[in-house]
Every structure is written in C-alpha cells, then in structure tokens.
Amino acid sequence: MRASLLVVLLTGCVELADLHAEGGSAPPIEPTPPAAAPLDPFVALLSAPWAFADGFTSPAPAPWRPCGRGCFEAKAAAVAVAPANGRVILAEPGVIELEHHFFENHVRKSARTRFEGLQHSLTIGQDLKRGEPLGEGQRLTVTLVGSGEDPALFFAARPQLPDPSAERVLALIHHDQQELRILRDGVEVLRAEVGFGQATGAKERRGDNRTPKGVYRVVQHSKGPFDGPVGAYYGGHWMRLNYPNPWDAARGVDAGLITVAQQREITQRYWAGLATNERTSLGGGIGLHGWAEEWSDTDSRQMSWGCIVLHLSDVAQVYEALPDGGMVILF
After folding, report:
1. N or C: which end of the chain has fewer CB within 10 A?
2. pLDDT score of 38
3. pLDDT band at 6 (very low <50, low <70, confident <90, very high)
C-alpha cells in the first residue's frame, strides 16, 4: 500500500514538474466535498414528499366494467378516481401517472400507477387523495409502472394500510440501533435504550425467542406487582401489543402455521385496534416492559423471550407516554 501510494505521489510530482518546465502552471486543487452524513433511520422512515397512502381502491368503480387485465369499459362517459393518496408525476393528453408512498407493514414502499384513455385537467405536481376524480372516459387502461402485477389484484390486496404520519402518538423501535423514540403530534418527546429477545432476527413462530418486526398497537396497560415465576421481569409495568398482525398472519398461512379462518380473524381484530389471537403457532404475548433489575447498555441486549425490554429508569415514563391505541413500529 505504501509503495503504491509513493508511486502515485512521485507520478504527480513528475507531471507537475513537466508543467512548470513547459512554462505552464499546475491546475487548481479542488477541495474534496465532505461525505454526506447518513440519514437518521428514524427520520428516514417517516420522510415522504407527500401524504402516505392509507389504502388502495379500484380506480374504476361502477359503472365501469372489467374488459380484461387492467382494462375497464363504460357505456357512457364515466369518472375514474385516484386509487390512493399520491402525486401527479405525468400529465399528458389521455395519460396520467401517479406516484404513491405507503407502508407494507413496517417497510416503506412506493408504486406508480398509469392511466390511459381519460380526458383530464390534472397538472404535474398536483396531490390527490384516494377517491378524488382523475378524469373521465369510456375505455380505461390501468398499469403498475415497472411491475408485472395485475393492478386489480394489487389494489384489492391493500384496502387498508397503516399511516404513521396520521398518529397522534407514535413509538418507533429500531432493532439495529436498539433504541425507542416516542413522537407526539410528530414531535419527539422521549428517547430510550431497549433490549430484545434472546434470539436475533424477526419473530416467526411461537417459542423462537425473537422480537417481531411490524406495525402494532398497544392494547393493554398493566402495573405490578405481577405474580408468577416471571412476574418480577415485568419491572412493574406491562404494555401488550396486538401481535400477530395481518402481515404476520399472511406469512403464517404461507408457512402452514395457521388457517385462513385464523388469518381472517386476526386481520379483522387488528384493523379494529383489538388484541389478536395469541394462541396459534405464530405465538403471542409480545409487549414492552421493564426487567427484574437494572441492566447496562454495554451488556448483551438479547434478554427476553421476545418482548421489548426497557430500563427501570425509563419504563414508567414510557408507560405514561404510550397510551392504549398508540401505534408502535418495530423496524
């Protein structure tokens, strides 16, 4: 490495000497711009150029009728609507494209929808809410730009989506940074170090001792003392989350861990803000709590059977700041 560096330096010196010998001058040395600081993952998660989509709907309600994949027809001029919150990024005669930002569980995603065959008066940069008019026509073609997925199936699979930006109280918990932040009306009010389950990775099934990743709500608050052999490990405070959620349930069906009927029940209760079925093979009993004794940030943070562990010095504050119904994103 040192020899290579010396060659580079000597070569540079020779080139500069040649310039001076020919009566030239050395080119000015441009300062190296400082490297951009990595964006705070908590900030990045919620940063969006316009409103998040809180769900998708068909852009072609009645009287439109399907005429093939992504194709709709109407006997007379009919109005098509925005399938979700988004912004107009292309507006040409007969053509519209919207860009949508949304959460698929705890993961930020985006999608572009294209509509052809409408007369419209939209302009680039215009923001639309789900259900607002796009334009009208008698034959409409809808595509997902850059995707081979059937748009009708895409919309139907996402009738409801979480919108963290609409939450009055929101808790964000980052697995890698082992940190919790609570926001009230978008402003951070509390920050705390946390511990997780004894096994790494996102929870998949009962007994794996992992902490989930996903979007949940607090569905129970309890203060100690707690009975039983593990009662002391709650640290006097317990905040239950409604794990599993619909995405956990979908994964469970694919893995053969739960039935479609159980998936349907979990999904319905989750969107109603209620506790979900904790007795399936997906497991349950996930929440935030303290610990039997104070622990050090320098010790292993893999402590619990899957819950989020708080310092005894923080747990009471978190308990008061995070009410029932509060959204919690584990990411």
Report:
1. N
2. 77
3. very low
How far, in Å, CA of 201 to CA of 260, rounded?
25
For tokens 């053969």, name the residue: 256
pLDDT of 39: 87
State phi, psi for 182 to the nearest 5 degrees. Answer: -115, 130
Cβ-proximal residues to 315 (8 Å cutoff; 6+ apart), any chain = 235, 236, 237, 288, 289, 290
Global pTM?
Answer: 0.87
- The segment(s) of the chain belonging to CATH 2.70.70.10 are 65-156
At which residue do the structure tokens 């316009």 appear?
Answer: 50
| C-alpha closest to that of 81 among 146, 9, 142 | 142
We find that the CATH architecture of domain 167-330 is Beta Barrel (2.40)
Looking at residue 4, what is its pLDDT? 37
Residues of the chain with CATH 2.40.440.10: 167-330
Superfamily of domain covering 65-156: Glucose Permease (Domain IIA) (2.70.70.10)
pLDDT in tens, 244-269: 999 999 999 999 999 999 999 999 99
12 has pLDDT over 50: no
Whole-angstrom distance, CA of residue 167 vs CA of residue 314: 22
